[in-house]
């Protein structure tokens, strides 16, 4: 069962430093419990070669990425892990039913699911970090397609390199969205230099006026 990070879910709901009333709180916990029962988390990660042909260009395996933000994140790295994780189609079905029946619940399910996929990703991140540590290497914060100027079109490359349709049932739509929807792909750099934190997101984002900022 995926642990439920209640504070993270509340952040997605917009409760910045505040707490919901008793009714909302109870309903959030109930929705989270249903989601925990429905979710079938799956994940995969693999290591790939990395080169830096120019300042804002990277080559990961056979994929060329033009991104200033990702290049900055991976500066000094000699390799990367690509990872993918999903809550599974069962979680998507639960979210779809909630949207059709009761929109207030759908919002709570969405927030709980967002928190849970982050928890799954953190678990994968920890496995990668332990594997890297065995070689005396350190991990940079994970960075996902669609974040900053890292094109969301690279979701297709991730799916191909990790064989996600066959391995974990994760596909990419024509508009480069992930299916199931509560899924994440990310790249994690490997370096000889230690980092104080392996989590990405608000800690590295320049958008300080975001409503969901930690």
Structural commentary:
With 214 residues, this protein is of the alpha+beta class. The protein has one domain (6-191): NADH Oxidase. 40% of the residues lie in helices and 21% in strands. It has helices at 6-12, 22-38, 68-73, 89-101, 103-133, 155-162, 164-167; strands at residues 42-54, 57-60, 63-66, 79-86, 138-139, 171-172, 178-179, 183-191. The strands form two sheets. A six-stranded antiparallel sheet has the order 3-2-1-4-8-5. Helix 1 packs across helix 5 and helix 4 runs antiparallel to helix 5 (103-133). The longest helix is centred in the middle third of the chain and has 31 residues, at 103-133.
Q: How many domains is the backbone divided into? A: 1
The CATH class name reads: Alpha Beta
Number of helices: 7
Biggest sheet: strands, sense, closure? 6 strands, antiparallel
Structural class: alpha+beta
Strand order of the largest sheet: 3-2-1-4-8-5
Could you tell me the mean pLDDT? 91
Residues in helix, %: 40-55%
CATH architecture annotation name: 3-Layer(aba) Sandwich
Please report the distance between the alpha carbons of the first and last residues.
25 Å
Percent in strands: 15-25%
């Amino acid at each position: 069962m995926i642990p439920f990070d209640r504070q993270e879910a509340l952040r997605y709901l917009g409760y910045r430093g505040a707490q919901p009333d008793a009714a909302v709180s109870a309903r959030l916990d109930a929705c989270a419990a249903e989601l925990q029962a429905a979710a079938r988390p799956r994940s995969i990660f693999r290591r790939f070669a990395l080169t830096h042909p120019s300042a804002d260009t990277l080559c990961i395996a056979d994929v060329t990425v033009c991104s200033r933000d990702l290049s900055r994140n991976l500066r000094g790295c000699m390799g990367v892990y690509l990872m993918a994780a999903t809550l599974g189609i069962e979680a998507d079905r639960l979210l779809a039913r909630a949207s059709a029946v009761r929109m207030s619940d759908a919002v709570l399910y969405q927030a709980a699911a967002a928190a849970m996929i982050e928890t799954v990703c953190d678990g994968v991140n920890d496995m990668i970090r332990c594997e890297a540590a065995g070689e005396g290497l350190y991990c940079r914060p994970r960075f996902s397609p669609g974040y900053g100027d890292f094109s969301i079109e690279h979701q297709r490359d991730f799916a191909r390199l990790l064989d996600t349709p066959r391995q974990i049932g994760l596909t990419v739509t024509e508009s480069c969205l992930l299916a199931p929807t509560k899924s994440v792909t990310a790249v994690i750099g490997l370096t000889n230099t230690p980092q104080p934190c392996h989590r990405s997101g608000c800690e590295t984002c320049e958008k300080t006026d975001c409503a969901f900022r930690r």
